[in-house]
Amino acid sequence: MSQAIQIIRLLGLGKAIRTQKRFGQALPHVRGYAVCSCLWALLETGALDRLLEGSPVTVDDLAAHYHLDRHVLESVLNYLDGLSLVRVESGEVRALGPLVQLMAEPRGFFELTYAYAPILARLPAMLHGEAKYPADVQRLGKYVGRGSGQLCRTLPYPVLADMLRRHGARLVLDLGCGDLAFLFYVCETHPDISGIGIDVDGPTVAYAKEMLAASPYAGRIEVRQADMFHLEEVARDRPDVDAITAVDTYHEYLSENDEEVVVRLLGKLRREFPRAILYVGEFCKQPHERLRRRPVAFLEHHLLHDLTNQTIAEAPRWRRIFRQASLAILEEKVFDVVGHGYFVLR
User: Fold this and answer.
1) d(CA 116, CA 139)
2) What domains, with CATH codes, occur in the chain?
3) What global pTM score does this model have?
4) Residue among 112, 230, 228 nearest 173 (CA)
């Protein structure tokens, strides 16, 4: 109390109150950056998953097992202890409930944002025109896939899996399958559906095959390295494909003024797989005025996509693209509250 009185005498009551209030307003922004950076670092090193196992571990063992600088590790853990995310006592550390909850369903939010950390780190250079995406700075592809897969289990996967079931799908061709998160979900929820996952990235396919081998679905899922623009061989080998899925995939080939690449791709898929129904889950751009009134997570989503030259289309534009590809919309669900749309096409 005596120290507070001294500060008030020095600054005056009004200025002291204003200063405290303004620092309080700034703290959540600064703290959010610091917390994310600490959690991202622990995530990348593997130490975070060890903490989430539940049992306490000594700081020394954590540092030794993951080859970490003990001083830096202890600094990070002490900071997170101050926020009651972990507890450090007598040389041991354990995760607390709030951290466990953050790393449950919202974990994908942290991982997907971490994928764009290199972009945010180079933002001053990008503003000055000294760095361009993707020539000079790239996303962390591993975390794009991991974060997206985890986030999609909350709504996109359940919606699309339900559509597949109701339209009688049996063999699903998943475009840009990543780590097979969607096909795993479909096989987990619908035991009479099988899948083929294709991805153009070799390391991603190798990782997907490792994941598949360790899963209970090795007999129901096949993984191939293939370009979705050139699926002639897949079409010849598997004419029984009756469903083609793409979750947050097509928008990467859009630009503000050109949608012809996506139109041609959809038309090509329709011709090569004449039996197949197309299932599309895509971001639907939210009006900026709506985000200003209610700044949900899609504000960050739009920022990160804009910085990496990914065009997000409004729902009416997606409908126009489907018409141009001579595809009829059999069913659609557009959830404006989360900025996502789902379309069944033939």
Assistant:
1) 5
2) 2-103 (1.10.10.10), 155-345 (3.40.50.150)
3) 0.87
4) 228
